[in-house]
Design brief:
Elements (H helix, E strand, L loop, with lengths): L4 E2 L2 H14 L2 E5 L5 H11 L2 E3 L7 H7 L2 E5 L5 H17 L3 E4 L7 H11 L5 E5 H7 L19 H11 L2 E5 L2 E5 L4 E5 L11 H12 L5 H22 L3 H14 L5
Parallel strand pairs: 1-9, 2-3, 2-4, 4-5, 5-6, 6-7
Antiparallel strand pairs: 7-8, 8-9
Helix pairs in contact: 1-9, 2-8, 2-10, 3-4, 6-7, 8-9, 9-10
């Protein structure tokens, strides 16, 4: 049994309002599959996306950004260099940043890079259960970006990883769990159709980076997850399939908190 606190929708909406006022410049180094959707999600909620990936620019840009996302989904040696430079710059400049260890544990190269990134002290690590278990040093049992483990099963590993790394760990699943090593927050909701649209989870990491510009990491991760779940539920009611869902999801993200 996971000891947990449910995150209130009112808290998430308050954080969303503050984030919109700030319109944080959110630097995203993300995978080629998710980049366009991620930028659109950030625009929909009122953040300002910047998809800067050149190794010659990332350190300078991470230092002036309000938040940074590093997503290793389609990583190459060239991108790994840029990611490490950006993470180091974010640490030096105290820019809050999010690590998304996509498919870590499945193959060695990305796993090694993710562990090096972890040494640069991300504010938040967001992944599915298998990714979080693997990053903690255990066998995650994942298959690529898919998780073979239930999110609740990963909570003990997430707590240990949070204590060791100093990062807030966010586990995505049917129920999301977010922990700083002590407290555990759960966020239920969303819809199964969200797993049939490329880039939804990756975009959640970017939203956490945007929220981290105006809230401490545990709260930022919980509020981002809650806003995603709410938008997903609403969009699923209006959609007849994943194509229409992706459009409806962006519309709902833009509408949340602005209803008459």
């Amino acid at each position: 049994m996971v000891s947990q606190n449910m995150w209130a929708e009112s808290e998430a909406l308050a954080d969303l309002s503050r984030m919109r006022e700030l319109a944080p410049l959110t630097h995203c180094i993300t995978n080629i599959v998710a980049a366009n959707f991620t930028a659109n999600v950030l625009l929909a909620v009122g953040a300002s996306p910047a998809m800067v990936i050149a190794a010659e620019e990332v350190a300078e840009f991470a230092a002036i950004a309000s938040g940074l996302l590093v997503n290793v989904g389609t990583i190459t040696k060239k991108e790994a260099k840029a990611m490490l430079l950006a993470a180091a710059a974010a640490r030096r400049s105290a820019t809050p940043w999010v690590l998304d260890p996509v498919a870590v544990g499945a193959v060695r190269f990305r796993t090694d890079v993710a562990k090096k990134l972890l040494a640069h002290k991300p504010s938040i690590v967001r992944g599915n259960a298998s990714e979080i278990i693997a990053l903690s040093g255990s066998s995650g049992g994942g298959k690529g970006v898919d998780s073979a483990a239930d999110s609740a099963a990963a909570v003990p590993f997430a707590r240990e990883l949070a204590k060791r790394s100093g990062a807030v760990i966010a586990i995505s699943g049917v129920v999301d769990y977010i922990t700083d090593g002590s407290d555990v927050i759960s966020v239920a909701g969303g819809d199964a159709i969200m797993t049939r649209v490329t880039g939804v989870g990756c975009a959640l990491g970017a939203l956490m980076a945007a929220f981290a510009a105006c809230a401490e990491p545990l709260r930022a991760a919980a509020s981002a997850s809650a806003i995603f779940a709410l938008a997903g539920e609403r969009a699923a009611h209006a959609a007849t399939g994943p194509g229409r869902f992706s459009v409806a999801f962006l519309d709902e993200l833009a509408r949340i908190g602005r209803e008459a």
